[in-house]
Fold this protein.
Amino acid sequence: MNSNQSLSRRGFLTVVGATGLTAALPRHGHAAARPGQGVFGSTETRREGSARFPKWKGAIDRTLRERQQLTQPCRKTAVSSCDMHDWQELLNTLRGRARGDQINLINLELNRRAYVLDPINWGVADYWASPAQFFQKNGDCEDYSIAKYMSLRDLGLQPRDMRVVVLNDENLKIPHAVLAVRNDGDELILDNQVNRVVSHRIIRHYRPIFSINEEAWWLHR
């Protein structure tokens, strides 16, 4: 996301539904905070489950259904681009490669997609797309992050080692989303704005709000 691609903070943070983020915060059942040890040096508190985030859950559910497309052969036509099969071919070329290579190449390859704002793509302020939808129509920052998450998951990374991080870009003064991947004791950041994967420790202008995977979500302060 850049200065010409900004979304309203209100629209972007409707990922938890009409009740908003604050109303969705559980009052119990969460782990102790990790002061200053979280992604981007934040204090983070883990909360179990992610059912309170319907847009995230919708993207995951659609992804599981869309995988059925891969069981059928595909022939490219004017109405069928075989995007899911092309994605699977990309993943197959990366199987068996070193984990660092997989992370870097997935970030690089998916960053080749065009950036398209949700109001243009979907007619709504904020929509979290599945990989198939992303490959068909391109997308914005969280769509890149979800496609990268699902790609690395398919290559064998565990959900517990990945999180989509919703944050504020303090330089551009806009909301943004990236994928954080734990590898060799570090949190690596896959960002649609940067083709190079880097450690979260060297990024100073991102202030995380919350992060999420299939197992849990984290509140950052």
User: Anything to note?
Assistant: Helices lie at 9-12, 20-24, 54-66, 83-94, 99-110, 118-121, 131-137, 141-154. The two ends are 22 Å apart (CA to CA). The chain has a mean pLDDT of 85.
